[in-house]
Specification:
Elements (H helix, E strand, L loop, with lengths): L6 H14 L2 H14 L5 H16 L2 H11 L11
Length: 81
């Protein structure tokens, strides 16, 4: 929960985080949200999320993100992944 007078700053902070995400990961997360919207199958949601994370982690984009984190540098995202 965010106080009304802090809402703009909180939204701006979240947007800055989203801007840092890899484009494939961000698109995949949006697609997952659309797929599971309204579902009450908690186990199915957990499995879908785990499968997405596993698939993205081994992708070229995921490897770039992990490498950048370990090397303490900004990731270089490309749209070709």
């Amino acid at each position: 929960m965010v106080a009304a007078d802090a809402l703009d700053a909180a939204v701006a902070a979240q947007l800055r985080l989203l801007e840092k995400a890899g484009p494939v990961a961000a698109a995949s997360a949006k697609q997952l949200v659309r797929q599971v919207q309204g579902s009450t199958d908690r186990d199915g949601l957990d499995l879908a999320n785990a499968a997405l994370i596993a698939r993205l982690r081994v992708s070229p984009e995921g490897q770039e993100g992990l490498g950048a984190f370990l090397e303490k540098r900004a990731p270089v995202w490309t749209t070709g992944h």
